[in-house]
Design goal:
CATH superfamily: Ribosomal protein L30/L7
Strand order of the largest sheet: 4-2-1-3-5
Largest sheet: 5 strands, mixed
Distance between the termini: 24 Å
Number of helices: 4
CATH class: Alpha Beta
Radius of gyration: 13 Å
Helix content: 25-40%
Strand content: 15-25%
CATH architecture: 2-Layer Sandwich
Amino acid sequence: MSKICVIRISGMVRKRRGAIDTLDMLKLRRKYSCVVLEPTKSNLGMVKRVKDFVTFGEISDDVYKLLVEKRGKEGKKFFRLHPPIKGWERKGTKAGYNVGGALGYRGDKINELVKRMI
C-alpha cells in the first residue's frame, strides 16, 4: 500500500479537545498543512478520528517527489501548502467529498488537489 497524504482544511475554533490533540500529534497545527504518513494501524486510527477536519488519500510517488521538491524541508514529512487554485469543490469545506464537498477520504484524487495547492 502506498503512503497516505493528510491535509488539514478547517480551523479549530470551538472543536473537540480530542480532535485538537490528535491533529497536534499528526503535526497538523495550521490550515493547509500537510503530512505524508505510512498506512499503519495507529496512523489510520488517528486519521479516522479527525476525518471531519481533514482530507486524505493515497499519494502517488511522482506527486510526492514533486511535493518534496517544491515545498519540502530536509528529513521532514511536513509541508505547508497554499489554498487550492480554482478553490474547493462545489459544496465547500463543510461537506464530505462523497457528497460534493472537500472533507474526508478522496482516494487517489488527492494527487490532483496537492498539485493545485503546491
